[in-house]
Amino acid sequence: MLRNYLNIAIRTLHRNLVYSFINITGLSIGIACSVLILLWVYDEVTYDQSFSKYEELYQVKVNNSVDQGVVTRSTLPMALKDVLLQQDSRIKHFAITVSQPALLTVGEKKLDKIGIDASESFLTIFDYKMIAGNAETALKVPRSIVLTQSSARALFGTEDVLGKFVQVKIEKNEELKVTGVIADPPNNVSLRPEFILPFAYFEATSPWVKYARGNWSNNAFEYYVELQPGTEKEVVDTSIKDIIKKNNPDVTNRELFLHAMSHWRLHNNFVNGREDGGLIIYVRLFTGIAIFILVIACINFMNLSTARSEHRAREVGIRKTVGSGRNEL
Fold first, then answer.
1. Contact at 8 Å (CB) between 127 and 51?
2. 280 pLDDT exceeds 60?
3. Residue 142 pLDDT more than 70?
4. Within 10 A of 236 (CB to CB), how many other CB atoms are there?
5. In this predicted structure, which of 112-116, 187-191, 301-305 has the lowest mean pLDDT?
């Protein structure tokens, strides 16, 4: 019976080549467009979810009240790092970072890369896959560097580079020891450094840092925190919001708050100190477009099929005559 159905289907397609081409192509294009759009949507809604601590990670931001309203920033003073953990025991770990370009050199190979200087707990908070080295100790040695898999391969031709030296030029040329290699982060990750340097190295080699250590008005650093499991973000927000005011009497218009990792990508727009959409608007829009395209393609397919159904009335009659039931028809 199945063989008969296949033969009839093939013969019908051959007899109506133009109609079959239009109908099948229309449905196929509709499905393909919908699938491609939904793949992009899936990539966006799963942003940063490759980190196992996705639900506990936050970025510290500040609302700065000015005459025109409230401006939200992610850069904060270096002095904050000395009081952040003391302020609230519900903060399990925190990391301070600053982005920095550098020229990496090994022999004749030279690479311009964008990396970050990060405190020791950075690789503990953000659990990138470690190919070599230990995440807990990789950034403890001041004169060290952690490379990504692709950077290590480009410089050395191999990923087995632990203990080797890279010449790093920022202010001046320095030879740093490779203490770790991480797998290249996925494309849908917010933090994708090409190398990581210890924050202690940054403090030791950047002359201006000594002025920033106790300066509550020098805003050049980003902070990330991991909260204890089950901790409510709003409680910690209340605890930390006045840290800058307490430590800098000249500043009365800045309040700290936590921005959840789950909102970094899609809810990244702030108006007057509050989240006000972002890429989530486009995700919802394109999801609706994908569903609309699929529904229209299906309706078009069914309409064309129904319009041609009268041409197969004789076939239906013969099948009824030989005893075919509803399922066979």
1. yes
2. yes
3. yes
4. 22
5. 301-305
